[in-house]
Amino acid sequence: MTILEFHKALKNKKTSARETAISYLDKIKKENKNLNAYLEIFSARGGSASGGEYDALKQAKEIDEKIASGEEPGALWGVPIAIKDNILIRGEIASAASKILGNYVASYDAHVIAKLKKAGVIFLGRTNMDEFAMGSSTENSAYGPTKNPRDTSKVPGGSSGGSAAAVAGGLAMAALGSDTGGSIRQPAAFCGVVGLKPTYGAVSRNGLIAMASSLDQIGPITQTVEDAEILFNTIKGKDEMDSTSVLPKVFNRAAKIKTIGIPKEYFSEQGLDPHIKSELDKVINKLEKNYEIHEINLPHTKYALACYYIIVPAEVSSNMARFDGVRYGERKDAGNLIETYKKSRGEGIGLEVRRRILLGTYALSAGYYNAYYSKAQRVRSLVAEDFKKAFAEVDLILAPTVPTPPFKIGEKTNDPLAMYLSDIYTIPANLAGVPALTLASGAQLIAPHFEENRLFEVGKFIEHD
Ligand code: GLN
């Protein structure tokens, strides 16, 4: 059931929040061992008794009691969702799928979690991910890979692979993920579900374990565009704890969508898998019935990946400094301070995260700062400028999300560059800060800042025949 379908059933008393939560928990109990989508379930019924503060079934019961007492249910009451393991829920572990945070219990709710609690959402559990959200396959988790429910020999994508797999496999009605360079959209495309990377600043990052703070955004992973819209409208908005978040009045500017741009650079023969191209062609044919289609140029696309892999490691090297076993993270005592740092970090932090700390520290070092970091920042402006120019010509952009279909588990683990390339079509939107929506078909829509409404309008047009 989608969120909308469930709500119809809930209002007509065809189901209850508790009954629905139980059916998900039972399915998780049966199937999660194989998929490894969840790292922990917030109810003993799901198989892993959490010992945490949060209890999904208790929350569901409270919702049912409110409905029984005659209250009109809000749009998300009783909706059972999965939460990526880097978003804090008070009293629960949030490990970012890292060993170093394996026992870290969140002392407060992330802003989005507080909002969803208020909206009556039920949290089923926390989902697997690439360690600290660095990766494209969920194989960088310290707790084993997640499998793609559509084909369990394949990866679900990443880094929000557990969330996407939970939604695609029917182990959650919807989920939250985070997207720094594609981590919501790429797994959504690999698992055949919907994923939204909101405009930078649309959703508060307070309570999200930071990866690259100038790019990170929390967003929904859902079965339909309508469901993504409902969740987004609930979590968006100003939070005084995140100075980059914006007031709601910047949203909902009315705009008539007439033209859709197809960026030439995203459809190059060498780069794009023919099956994905033919899926996209179908979408374009459909759009032609209602919109004008224009070819456009985003000329700096070819530099986006290189630029991202300077800026991200730079920010990562800074954000990861707090996980030293003293301020945060599991402490491994080793006699003196430096050895304790080394042991705690050496044992607690995985290889990909280490690679980025090293690259970022290098790129920020005195002799190389100008050559790498400053230059990458200038390239980032050029990528953003490309979108600005494009949106002077067209109202929306259509692009692929991924260059290839899901790859086999293990196929790219020894080739970081091949892994990085799977985000080639998602990274530019993060660098520019613009919102982007991936549909179950793998099509990606990109809109100007704070114009998520355009994504939903055209997304629904594509989704409905
Ligand atoms: N796969 C990309 C990376 O490894 C994106 C990750 C993300 O969006 N969190 O950086």
TrEMBL record:
<dbReference type="Pfam" id="PF01425">
    <property type="entry name" value="Amidase"/>
</dbReference>
<dbReference type="InterPro" id="IPR036928">
    <property type="entry name" value="AS_sf"/>
</dbReference>
<feature type="active site" description="Charge relay system">
    <location>
        <position position="159"/>
    </location>
</feature>
<comment type="function">
    <text>Allows the formation of correctly charged Gln-tRNA(Gln) through the transamidation of misacylated Glu-tRNA(Gln) in organisms which lack glutaminyl-tRNA synthetase. The reaction takes place in the presence of glutamine and ATP through an activated gamma-phospho-Glu-tRNA(Gln).</text>
</comment>
<feature type="region of interest" description="Disordered">
    <location>
        <begin position="137"/>
        <end position="161"/>
    </location>
</feature>
<dbReference type="GO" id="GO:0050567">
    <property type="term" value="F:glutaminyl-tRNA synthase (glutamine-hydrolyzing) activity"/>
</dbReference>
<dbReference type="GO" id="GO:0006412">
    <property type="term" value="P:translation"/>
</dbReference>
<keyword id="KW-0067">ATP-binding</keyword>
<feature type="domain" description="Amidase">
    <location>
        <begin position="23"/>
        <end position="444"/>
    </location>
</feature>
<feature type="active site" description="Charge relay system">
    <location>
        <position position="84"/>
    </location>
</feature>
<comment type="similarity">
    <text>Belongs to the amidase family. GatA subfamily.</text>
</comment>
<dbReference type="InterPro" id="IPR000120">
    <property type="entry name" value="Amidase"/>
</dbReference>
<dbReference type="GO" id="GO:0005524">
    <property type="term" value="F:ATP binding"/>
</dbReference>
<dbReference type="InterPro" id="IPR020556">
    <property type="entry name" value="Amidase_CS"/>
</dbReference>
<protein>
    <recommendedName>
        <fullName>Glutamyl-tRNA(Gln) amidotransferase subunit A</fullName>
        <ecNumber>6.3.5.7</ecNumber>
    </recommendedName>
</protein>
<dbReference type="InterPro" id="IPR004412">
    <property type="entry name" value="GatA"/>
</dbReference>
<keyword id="KW-0436">Ligase</keyword>
<comment type="subunit">
    <text>Heterotrimer of A, B and C subunits.</text>
</comment>
<keyword id="KW-0547">Nucleotide-binding</keyword>
<dbReference type="GO" id="GO:0030956">
    <property type="term" value="C:glutamyl-tRNA(Gln) amidotransferase complex"/>
</dbReference>
<keyword id="KW-0808">Transferase</keyword>
<dbReference type="InterPro" id="IPR023631">
    <property type="entry name" value="Amidase_dom"/>
</dbReference>
<feature type="active site" description="Acyl-ester intermediate">
    <location>
        <position position="183"/>
    </location>
</feature>
<keyword id="KW-0648">Protein biosynthesis</keyword>
<dbReference type="GO" id="GO:0016740">
    <property type="term" value="F:transferase activity"/>
</dbReference>
